[in-house]
Design a protein that fits this description.
Blueprint (H helix, E strand, L loop, with lengths): L1 E6 L10 H14 L3 E7 L2 H4 L11 E5 L2 H14 L2 E5 L5 H11 L3 E6 L2 H8 L17 E4 L4 H8 L6 E3 L19 E6 L7 H14 L5 E4 L13 E4 L7 H6 L1 E6 L3 H6 L5 H8 L3 E4 L16 E2 L3 H10 L2 H18 L2 H18 L7 H6 L1
Parallel strand pairs: 1-2, 1-4, 2-3, 4-5, 5-6, 6-7, 8-9, 8-11, 9-10, 11-12, 12-13
Amino acid sequence: MNIVILGLSITSSWGNGHASTYRALVRGLVSRGHTVLFLERDIPWYANNRDLPRPPYCRLALYADVAELKTRFAADIAAADLTIVGSYVPDGIAVADVVLRGATGCTAFYDIDTPVTLARLADDRADYLARRQVPLFDLYLSFTGGPTLEVLERQFHARMARPLYCSVDPEVHGPVPAPHLKYDLSYLGTYSDDRQPALDRLLLEPARRWAQGRFAVAGAQYPEDVTFPGNVERTVHLSPREHPAFYSQSRFTLNITRREMIAAGYSPSVRLFEAAACGTAIISDSWPGLATLFVPGREILIAGNASDVLGQLRDRSESSRAEIAKRGRDRVLTAHTGTHRAIELERYVSEATARSPVEGTGGALVRSL
């Protein structure tokens, strides 16, 4: 397929999880023989923090505004077999209109923030997607699976809602040999108001109780009034290429899920798959659907409070910890890579064009799959 993706960012991972998701998916698509043009709005925040300014596996183009998008890339959108618009794209409603009016191939909305989007669509206040646009896309690709997919189709009239979870690129994320394990427990994530209570409960409180323990928190945008104990090492930002070494120096790493994602369930974060791919044992909060991705107690560990965490850090044997880490890595490599997501996307596109063809979408696309 000839694919055009209009996403928040692929060039900068600073303060967002979209870039890592797009990188793994695009590399997976290209490995399957597809060509990808990624269109990204050129905004100062990402322009000043680009850790992958020239992705080697796709064509990248930056545009200044919607007017430039229409004049420069209308032909690319019209010629594409598949055009995907992502959540949180600046001026996303106008961008989606450009795609929906100009695309002749299959169209998809890729929601990397589904629970947030649905809450905003309820009263039509999302600034990157209008409620009227949901039924116009051939596909609604959702970061959240489970019952949310039915809500999208029944309540918001999506033609075809399917899960397309985040994934990992094994060429980027894998174990990095380290002379020793530097941290007992680490956490990698941008600051979020709704995640902070869990971070305090599951990492900062254990650090306060266990002065001999070694902890680390890496991520941007933490307010100055957040106090970190002296045994918690702070790093403001790590580029994706630095993530594997960070995880590989950790005996355990922590996965924390946003409040909306817990409520919806079936919403794995990209960090979950990245950490597992690096061969690090994961301690996670609990949410519906987690057991469909990893087997609790065998491939991942669940904790609800500081005592649960300290029990894992201090009482679990190193051999048991290493075995859980290995099983988690094996699960990711057999089910959650960018290539796996590319195969899923191919299947969805074929199904969408076959079951409810729209004038302008080609039967040649179905045959090509």
